[in-house]
Description:
By secondary structure, the protein is an alpha/beta fold. The protein has seven helices and eight strands.
Amino acid sequence: MGQAKRATLTPDYQRDWPRYFDAVRGMPPRDTLLRALELFEKEDARPRKTPRLRTAVDIGCGEGRDLRAMLGRAGPTRWIVVGYDDSEEAVRRTRAAAGKGESERWWVHQASMEDLARVFKDDHEADASVDLVNASFALPFCEPRAFPALWRWIGRLLKPGGRFAGQFFGDRDEWASVRPRSHRTRAGVKRLLRDFDVEWLDEVEKDGDDAMGGLKHHHVFHVVAKKR
Length: 228
């Protein structure tokens, strides 16, 4: 048997996204999203005649697995979701997978994370606020110079009591050698979350395959946090 290849990124921190979307096709939504949805459902579980309608922004929606999970959720909470991804192929796949049902509850747009604050302001009310910002394995791919503004925008976008769900890459992750400023220490992650109550912070460090089958040393922080 041949030796497995190392998982790699290009120097500009990109990968073969269509191939990645093929590799993760049919996989379940991220645990961070599911935990956040369950917390909202507990809050909305008191008796009411109709489900509570909440709003979400899905950053880096990819092939749409998390967006579909939000739309398909049953129970005391229903979701209106706006998805964004820089990849034209991601937008196409997400739109195709979401289908025409419940079309008044979701929109998907092509936009980079670096331009997201401006694009969202153009598409929606300037003072719009949402209940959930979901960013499954997305934020580490933001250009480091643009990340502080993106994170401030996420904080402004969330309502008090709203939640962030997503991941940060750790400083001991193998890809930290490609772009160190996209990786964070545990203390650095906690500083980012200083305006939040952290409901789940799971630090995972291990050797294993990435989504496309390459070997990699992983160091990831999985986060669900509630804005104060």
